[in-house]
Amino acid sequence: MNAPASEFELIDRHFRRAPRHADVRVGIGDDAAVIAPTPGMELAVSVDMLVEGRHFFAGTDAEALGHKTLAVNLSDLAAMGAAPRYALLAGALPDADEAWLARFMQGFRTLAERHDVELIGGDTTRGPRNLCVTVIGEVPPGAAITRAGAHPGDDVYVSGALGAAALAVRALGGDVRLAHDVLARVRERLERPEPRVALGLALRGVATAALDVSDGLVGDLGHILERSGCAAVVELARLPADPAVAERLHGADRDVALACLLAGGDDYELCFTAPRAARERIDVLARELAVPATLVGTLERGHGLTVLDEHGRPLAPLPASFDHFG
pLDDT of 28-41, one tens digit each? Predict the structure, then answer.
């Protein structure tokens, strides 16, 4: 029987690769990576952690988990309008399961190569499964899209569709019953989110504020409102609900559907604001990128978020978004 691989053997077999880009002066294998940023660019840096049992189910397919571990970080860069460049990966693993690790890295690397991201370092140790990625992107000086730039009168947009990932969590947890094909589709949205990198880059100079919908629209849009000092009115009927969520908005599962749509999280779509004068440009960008961008509401003077139901009445109380310490 072969002895379990050591930490350094795992690194050599699954993580170390010769640097693909000349701007990576020193890659995996030293105490730190050395990179040469593109002259004249600013760096955007983000870190996210995924913990088994908190952010993903035990037994989640390793290849899908590798994809998601990087995707959620690329989504943060997309929201800032930053081009992804480098990643560092740290993980605690319950054992040195090389077959699992090989599939995980297949999912991670496939997405990394699609977005030209180079893995430049990280760390491994034994422990409860916990995956942490730091991503580094580049953005022209002053061009980063933040949460603080929105103004009263701006439109509010959401990319893609909302609610599928949260509905999958409900179904996998036994709270909702879905047909097999529907469960397979919404589970794909949960486990393999698509970071809207191209849309984020295209929104430079167009969007006044943006973030990704990771913890639920109510809470995430609330961050823009707080940072920008605005209020918002959003129309429920305009929200781009996933079809499986939309069909439940008018039945016995309405409360579940509202929670998934407004506060479910894990969608990793972009919520952004833009001036009314940018509507035509945003429509063109959405068509060119084949990514829906739906106008869902407007910003106003004041504070807080109002969601109007199908009859124009304020929904109250609004469902609470995901709380990492809740």
Answer: 777 788 988 899 99
Q: Does the CA dihedral 113-114-120-126 come out positive or negative? A: negative
SS3 at position 15: helix
Q: Do 177 and 309 form a contact (C-beta atoms < 8 A)?
A: no
Give per-residue pLDDT as tens, 123-162.
Answer: 888 999 999 999 999 999 999 999 999 999 999 999 999 9
May I ask the CATH class of domain 155-308? alpha beta
Phi, psi (deg, nearest 5) at residue 320: -80, 140
Which pairing describes strands 130-139 and 42-51: parallel, antiparallel, or unpaired? antiparallel
Whether the per-residue pLDDT at 79 is higher than 90: the answer is yes
> Which architecture, in CATH terms, is 7-139?
2-Layer Sandwich (3.30)
Residue in the block written with tokens 């999958």: 168
Is the CB of residue 67 less than 8 Å from the CB of residue 107?
yes
Q: Which of 256, 23, 206, 212 is nearest to 118 (CA)?
A: 23
CA distance 271 to 200: 10
> Using omega within 30 degrees of 0 as the cis cutoff, is the peptide bond preceding 319 cis?
no
Q: Where in the chain is the domain with CATH 3.30.1330.10?
A: 7-139
* Residue 5 banded pLDDT, cuts 50, 70, 90: low
Burial of 149 from C-beta contacts in 10 A (0-12 / 13-18 / 19+): middle
Query: Looking only at Cα atoms, what is the longest distance across the chain?
Result: 69
Asked if residue 256 lies in contact with residue 316, where contact means CB atoms within 8 angstroms, the answer is no
